[in-house]
Amino acid sequence: MTESKLKTTSISVSSRASVKVGDSFYTVEYHEERCVPDTEDVDLAVERKLLWDTCNNEVDAQIEDILKLMKK
Hints:
The chain is α+β, with helices and mostly antiparallel strands. The protein is built from one helix and two strands. It has a two-stranded antiparallel ribbon. The model has no long low-confidence stretch (mean pLDDT 94).
């Protein structure tokens, strides 16, 4: 397999989820982009996981807010 010669300069993630509350559907989405510093000690796999966790947690929090509001 050929290895890419390109250098990653940023990573971005979009996370989206839908939830049905009663007869209505709500879809929430969160997107975040992070710049990769120009240093040798960056572990992109770790940074990607951290970014995915951040985005998924934000979507989960948005759904929690919707569910709390609908219970009132």
